[in-house]
Design goal:
Elements lengths: L1 H13 L2 H19 L4 H15 L4 H25 L11 H47 L4 H15 L7 H15 L2 E2 L6 E2 L13 H19 L18 H6 L1 H16 L4 H17 L10 H17 L1 H7 L5 H12 L8 H4 L1 H22 L3 H7 L4 H20 L2 H19 L5 H23 L11 H20 L12
Antiparallel strand pairs: 1-2
Helix pairs in contact: 1-16, 2-3, 2-4, 2-16, 3-4, 3-8, 3-14, 3-18, 4-5, 4-12, 4-14, 4-16, 5-10, 5-12, 5-13, 5-16, 6-20, 6-21, 7-20, 8-18, 8-19, 10-11, 10-12, 11-12, 14-20
Length: about 500
Amino acid sequence: MDILSNLAMGFGIALSPYTLMLAVIGCFIGTIVGALPGLGPSNGVAILIPITFTVGLDATSALVLMTAVYYGAMYGGRISSILLNIPGDEPALMTTLDGYPMAKAGRAGDALVLSGVASFVGAFLATIGLILLAPLLARVAFVFGPAEYFALYMLAFATLGGMSSNNQAKAAVASCIGLGIAMIGVDNNSGLPRLTGGNLHLYDGVDFLVAIVGLFAIAEVFFFIESHGKNTSIGVKLDKVTIPWKDIVETKWTMLRCSLIGFIAGVLPGAGASLGSFLSYMTEKSIAGEEGKFGTGVPKGVAAPEAGNNAAAGGALVPMLTLGVPGSGTTAVLLALLMTLNITPGPTLFTERPEVVWGLIASLLIANVVLLLMNVPMVKIFVKVLMVPPWILLPGVTMISFVGIYSLSGSYFDLLLMVGFGALGFVLRKLDVPTVPIILGILLGGHMEDALRRAMVLSDGEVSYLFSSPIAIGLWIVAVAGFVAPMFLRKVLKKPQRITD
């Protein structure tokens, strides 16, 4: 009954005209961001965060808008995957395997509609899972002490770069860079400046919004510049759009199975939508066998990864809201948004700010319906977005980033720092060093340090206190396994090569 009453409160917030408008706008913008190859949900959310502060949105409204963009981008990633054979983001990579051949066979419209329905099923069921699982996990989190939280943060660092990075050492280096940046500023205990180089602007530390916009948005601008503004054209023309009822009925069990697989993958810290998409596709391929003809343009090959990656997107919100640990790169950016709004994700969030949590959950349910209704009749409009030339997109991204950050701080130094982070992000990505662990280090570094200090105070400096409870030991085991396992599973989880003409 508590869930029903909380949902009723959430819908009371979500169905207000203002919140509903924000959800629709977020869905539309997110779909466009997802459709543009290379941007993806992380960049889309990072670019738009400064706007939420510029227009003065409250915590619930800002979170509703950004999560609607997040869900919309997960929907939109399939468009360029199917029509261009270029995934809009990494989770949409598996969709290219059957989506593009299906489009080349003259069924581009069917593939887009089927993938939209599969995305709806995955995201909707994941939101239901969020409703059922998040409150339970929040209650368990109340037994966490400093030792458990320190182990939990170690789990996040150990696993977040694991599945998405090609090299565990590079992921570890990125985490250390993030932790080092988090240490910049005046130490709360001693009052002495750390790693500031005598610069007064750094005494308050590095604003993680500056780092996020720089590492994601500005770095993307540098990549646009490097490509000399080259544009892509539509690889497969989209003609008539109809609803393939037969394909939808035949893939219903595929959607349900893959939604469950994707949700579980999303709940695991660090696994994210990429793993959910991969596991969903490979599971369905193994069930179908050679007779399934996966990779030749079969409907199940389109429905499976789309249901999986959208379910994983919803699952990734569970650890972020209940434990304050992001389940993916995009939820790491959303975590930064919450912390900027002076909201601390964790078990107390459900009791102290229930309107934020349940308003968000209700908005997600509404956003899923909006995205389904939007992505079927308006798919031709979103396809036209793929033809936007970089010389229009580049100035827009740059303007939003600079105006947004300057409106927050009014400091020219933050603008210079943002450009510096953009250059750092560009170099690191050229070196194949993941940037998400850096963001995680900046976000959680201070909390991790506080947990370690409290643990040492309680134990009088005894390091064994960090391994003193079954929960802490379990988290340490999972952290070590999450860091080591990808080294042995790399060949199994190797990304498939993109199908070419």
